[in-house]
Amino acid sequence: MLGAIIGDIVGSAYEFNNTKKKDFHLFTPKSKFTDDTVMTLAVAEWLTVDKEHSKEGLVLRMQTLGRQYPTAGYGGSFMRWLYNQKPEPYNSCGNGSAMRVSPVAFYAHSLDEALTLATISAEVTHNHPEGIKGARAVASAIYLARAGASKEEIKTYVEENFQYDLNLQLDDIRPTYVYDMTCQKTVPQAILSFLESEGFEDAIRLAVSLGGDSDTIAAMAGSIAQAFYGVPRKLATCCYALLTPGLRAILNDFEEMMGCRAADPFDIERFIEAQNAGNAYQQALEEMRRGHKTTHWIWYVFPQLKGLGRSVYAQYYGLADMEEARTYLACPVLNERLYEISNAVLAHADGEVETVMGSHVDAMKLRSSMTLFDAVRPNDVFGKVLDAFYHGNKDERTLREIGQNV
Fold first, then answer.
1. Which of 183, 197, 227, 327 is the most exposed place for a label (fewest CB within 10 A)?
2. What is the model's pTM?
3. At which positions is Mg(2+) bound (predicted)?
4. Which phi and psi (to 5°) does residue 380 adopt?
């Protein structure tokens, strides 16, 4: 299921700014989850909570979760359904049925169960035969990949049971392919992106490179690719961090039920690895004890919120929100080191922060880092650093991002 979320987030930046090349940035400042992710997680919550797998239970969870994210990018017909007091299916053949189906294929204990659940998940809105077929085709491809089927076996099954032509080549489709939201014109393309791929990331890049409804095509291709290849940890971490705490909780509960929840979904270990490489943390601590920063380590020793900086390091080592900051402090090694080096900085309270940090830019980064951790643990060393060097003035961008008053 995380494969669908990754595909959605990667493709989101290119849906209305199509690229026809595989060589593009996987993540940009515009990368975000869309309705594809929200509805995929609504289906996951349905499977986790509603043991009867009733249509009524699915509608409830889709409407409840969907209304929490009203600007996620729903189509007009679905938006009306979302807020209807008596929602009825509206005979759609759109790809909304296929983009949200992946949880049922990871949940199912048999191919028949995957097909049955896929039908239920589609019919509550997309009860057009093509809408149901698209959901069943994607679900079967995922289930077969999970079960160890080869690409040729998956291709044969889909062709024989759903009559999609999978003998085309993406290079032949790409030049004239245009935006289309129907299952008929996106599901085969998503499956072909998986079939031609050489790995998970390659499947996502192929799907996006077609253009058109790139986030949804990549979500479908990514869900099949996850079942076949697995998901690279770095991609999983980046996309997990872009979810809200509420959406993460649904994902966590589903993966817990499936017995595949990651022990460290934020990949907090990346900070320890960076700090240990070349003895970087000890070097940073010595510099702070001397009162003057001279080498480059700010991103992974005093992390700030993701998005405040634009460099690759700032993005990779940026913390998603207060939840990830709490997770950071819950790590005994990182907790001890952050307190130790913050106190080392505080020992120079009679000096200028730009001198201690080596530049105005790094002084600003320290301020944003201390503001974030002070929000998690007020009245502690982080607040003392802010008082000593910044007259108690916190970083306003950080406060706005975490929803605190400026």
1. 327
2. 0.88
3. 34-36, 213, 215-216
4. -135, -165
| Helix or strand holding residue 325 (H, E) | helix 322-330
338-363 residue pLDDT tens: 999 999 999 999 999 999 999 999 99
Q: How many CB atoms lie within 10 A of CB 29?
A: 10
Number of Cβ within 10 Å of residue 17's Cβ equals 10
d(CA 135, CA 97): 5
In the chain, where does the domain assigned CATH 1.10.4080.10 lie?
2-258
Can you say which residues are annotated as belonging to the binding site for Mg(2+)?
A: 34-36, 213, 215-216
Binding residues: 34-36, 213, 215-216
Contact 42, 61 (CB under 8 A): yes
Question: Where in the chain are all domains bearing CATH 1.25.40.380?
Answer: 269-401
CATH topology for the 269-401 domain: 1.25.40
Residue 119 half-sphere exposure toward CB, CA atoms < 13 A: 6
